[in-house]
Amino acid sequence: MRQLNSYKNFLTGVLLFLSYIVSGQLVTAPDTILKNLKEPIKLTYYSYGNTYPWGYSTGHNYSGSEEWAEKYYIKGKAKIKGVISHHFGTVTGLTYPAEFNVYNVGDNRRPSTKITHKIIRYGDIDLSGKAMVTYFDTVATVPDSFFVSFNLFDYYHRPFTDTIGLYYGIDGSRPAADLINFGRNCIRKHFHGPPVWKDFYSQNNTPVATHFAIYPIVEFSGIHTNINEYVGYSGITMRPIFPNPAKTSFSILYNLDFVSSISYSITSLTGQILKNEIMGMQNVGSNEIKISNLNIASGTYIFTLQSNKGALAQIFIVE
Questions:
Q1: CATH number, domain with residue 179
Q2: Are residues 148 and 193 in the same domain?
């Protein structure tokens, strides 16, 4: 029942498309999903074992780690509406609270001020590893960069044996060139005082070059004013898929601010990869991908465009 409700909430969210008028025509613009992990990528986690020390590097563990945050970059301002996340583990304290958050980036390049959140129960977390969608209580407007996080709260003083955690990409899924980006992902342990965030790679004895499997659902401001305005992220911009809904084919226009290897994937809402193709190196400027002979069943899917610096994804429908 929990998975069914999660799936229904996902469909409700992705079908609440934003409509706007361009040149007298009604155009549909879906929310955008930002991903630091490349597709396809194997998700994993590290276990300390069943004795002391016990637990997981991104979940319940002996040291009282409570919260894990991933940093994202955008062009201009955007509205953060929710997150997609992947989880593992077991749960015994069904009613204990967990939380998803959005933070500003502080001067120390780590999470600072919380700007929106959503509290859920442990028992409502999908632990199957499939995509779980959570919408915030209020939409957060953020400029340039921000963090999204998963918080288990203080379990350090509670006598139960939950092992809930957050998946991440395999070691090396974060490019070596990005390792100088201090605070790309951070961890916060239980502490009786102001929050203390540490860089996951360099300050937590977890030198794993990875990104956390938590992705913000974003609405870019200004998209309703002109069809030539792109959805942008870290040097890669993308127009809405056309046509959407699609039947047997569709096109996607995108622009690059840098020379990059480009790939794309089409996945189902449950994460099944239906199509994945490496396009090779693409030059600066405008580019186009045309998908034809789209031999997939009617339904809702995710199209992900991947560059060397990150990814953009859009929801689209096949009739």
A1: 2.60.120
A2: yes
